[in-house]
Amino acid sequence: MKPAYLIFIATCMVGAALVTAQSKTTPPEPASQPRWEYKILYEVLPSNDLSDKTDNLTETQFEKASSKALANHGNEGWELVSVTAHTSGNAESRTYYLKRLGR
């Protein structure tokens, strides 16, 4: 009966050694942070000044063109993060900040 007892103890010791060895392996790497791409778009709004004949778009046409451009960027995976408006004299402009996951 002693040999069976010794075999049992030896087996337990080997098992404990294997469990200890497995717990000392390197831990899994933490999930990496996402990498982002950024894009900045500038847009000059049509002038409300009637003496300025350089603008051929009405405000409605301009808004539709802006929406279409943003939709196209959205289809490419870009997400609109922020918009800032700027005014200088009669000139108005917007800056669009976009981001997407890096490719």
* Average residue-wise pLDDT: 77
Number of strand elements: 3
Widest beta sheet: strand line-up: 1-3-2
Strand pairing plus helix content: what structural class?
alpha+beta
What string, H for helix and E for strand, traces the elements in order? HEHEE
Write up this protein.
The protein has 103 residues and is of the alpha+beta class. The chain is rod-shaped, with a radius of gyration of 33 Å. The protein has a domain at 36-48 and 56-101. The model has no long low-confidence stretch (mean pLDDT 77). The chain has 2 helices and 3 strands; from the N terminus they run αβαββ. 1% of the residues are buried. A 3-stranded antiparallel β-sheet has the order 1-3-2, with helices on one face. Helices cover 38% and strands 29% of the residues. The termini are far apart. Keywords: Signal. This is DUF4177 domain-containing protein. InterPro entries: YjzH-like. Residues 1-21 form the signal peptide. It holds the Pfam family DUF4177.
